[in-house]
Amino acid sequence: MDKIRKIFRWETALVGILVAQIFIFGLINPRFLKINVLLGSVNDYISICIIALFVTFVIITGGMDIQAGSIVGLTSIVMGLLWKVGGMNIWGTIPIVLLVGALCGAFSGFLIAYTGVQAMVVTLGGMFLFSGLAVVISNAAVSSAFQGISGFPAEFVQLANGKSFGIPNPFIIFIVLIIFAYLLLHKTKYGRKIFLVGVNTNAAQYAGINTKLVIMSTYILSGMGAAIAGIVLTSYLGSSRADFGAELTLPIVTAVVLGGTIITGGKGGVIGTALASLVIGILKFGLQMVGFSTQYLDIPVGILLIVAVAIRSVSAAGGLKFPTFMKSKGQRQKMAGSAK
Amino acid sequence: MKQIVRKVFKTPGLSSAFFMVALFIVAGIINPAFLSLDNLQLCINGSVMYMLLAIGIAFVLMTGEIDVSIGSVLGLSAAFMATCVRDGVSLWIAIPCTLAIGAIAGLLNGYGVAKLHVSSIIMTLGTMGILRGTVYIYTQGKWVENLPDYFKRYTQASVFGFVNVFLLVTIIITLGIHFYMSKTKKGRYLAAIGDNINGANLIGIPVARTQIFAFVLSGIFASLAGIIFVSKVGFVPPTAGSGYEMKAIAACVIGGISLSGGVGTVIGAFFGAIIMSSIGRILVFLKFPSEWDNTITGILLIVIVVADSLFRRHSAEKARKERLSARTLNEEREA
């Protein structure tokens, strides 16, 4: 119960930050408050939001995924190639692209779960591998990697640029994915397994959970999340390029961690990640609208990340944190009591 | 013979050196031009910047933490150094100031990790963004160009006719650090913290101070790499060094340093850096299109770490079995 309350508090804090942001930017530039502008801004950072939702799963198991960004580029270029060179229907490519994302995730996930190599190292290799593969296949099939493929059918481009019920489609996709991820992580047996693996892998193993399969499945999910982001981005920009997503790795991790997911695993949530990715996105968008150059935007995001995490880690420990043995005897007894 | 093989595999620095030699020989068999002295010289001289980055981050990795801000530190240092050189500031002032940038960035990282207990990947992710933004503010998003020629010639300076000065200095630094980290008391602290941070704390190692020290060194080395970047490349774009942190980490991993800390040597990182930066050149000599660079790097990285992990697990399993059978033998004898 205590734990739930704590996460809830962090999420309300995020909502507070979000409201404050909208209020402040609205004061400076009233155009910011138009609902169309605000919702439309989502398009600019939707890929971060989508991927971060599923990277949350990976980080809750105690893993790390820095390859998702490069899967975006790979799936985007695969999609373009299947359509242009393979002559497939653009909608028909979507299942294949999702499969490619899942395979990329499965590859790294398998190595992480079954060989025991650190997740950071494997996904670092995966990052090089998948971004490299994207460049290779795009060069082999079309022309220079940075030229890309464009000229997609209008209906497909409409997918991310259009609106239904007055709401931009990417935002609807995002909401649907939040609901899906929320139900999966917080309301199913599978989701509970993910948390248990993150809290204590050995205990989960003894409880009869196939921990390796659970760990591997989270990477498949994040690979598929990256593939969805690749599709949306391809549709939004109307072209597919191998270098999409190269810059996303760090914003994704930022969003997950700012959302309250603990980097060592076992604690976190989808709603927090979704809110945090919106906080980051709106911060960037708002600063742009009040006249900051896009190139400076890493500074406020970096400061926000460090300050938020530092405040949380210091306050979670009840002031500055000390290792257990440095605490007084009374404190230790209290801790032992609460552990029981 | 078997013992020698085992010993080679157990010394991480040596095994990566052997791997490098094997890689070069394979490349040389396919295209003998690769093994020409000129080319090898270019290969190794070209990797000095990565060596410095890898050695610096090795300190942090040894303590079990990670530092992804070094690419941005390199960028900021390079931009600062380049403007100093362009505006004719004396090198005796410019170089210490540039190194101070790295030291301050490292101090910030170290303070956050050791005192505020922010996990290192988050902390350095934050400073990475902050420093990269600072580079843009400092250079106003423009390239720093028109550097005087004398500074660009420094990277070509050599002693004894063929040994590059920077390379020589880097080798001396590497050996010095290897000695420091393997033989001196304070140097062993790093590995001790990486191996077991609570244990290190219990036996009275100043954990926080050592961690901060590691981050500061990592920053200083990134700044050094930045100075070399300026001299080697001759201009500094505001994106200078972005993505280098991943290459430096990959170099360390290839060199046998474990990201969970406590295992590895800087000599391994040194050879890992040579392997990392030579892949592109090897591909050119094998008549492969150079765009395969990242793909091959990724495959190599994954194969090496997976093979290493399986090898370790196999030998651990074998040792366990030997222990078990020894125990049963003892019991039989007693009975």
What would you note in describing this structure?
The complex is a heterodimer of chains A (340) and B (335). By secondary structure, chain A is mainly alpha-helical. Chain A folds into 2 domains: 42-283, no CATH class; 297-340, no CATH class. Helices cover 72% and strands 2% of the residues of chain A. Chain A has 15 helices and 4 strands. A two-stranded antiparallel ribbon of chain A has the order 1-4. In chain A, strand 2 (163-164) and strand 3 (167-168) form a beta hairpin. Chain B is mainly alpha-helical. Chain B has 2 domains: 2-288, Orthogonal Bundle (ABC transporter involved in vitamin B12 uptake, BtuC), CATH 1.10.3470; 292-335. Chain B is 76% helix and 1% strand. Chain B has helices spanning 2-10, 12-30, 37-45, 48-62, 70-86, 91-114, 120-139, 149-152, 165-183, 185-195, 197-202, 207-233, 244-254, 266-285, 293-334; strands spanning 158-159, 163-164. A two-stranded antiparallel ribbon of chain B has the order 1-2. Chain B is globular and about 85 Å long. The mean pLDDT of chain B is 84. Chains A and B meet through helix 6, helix 12 and helix 14 of A and helix 7, helix 11, helix 13 and helix 15 of B.
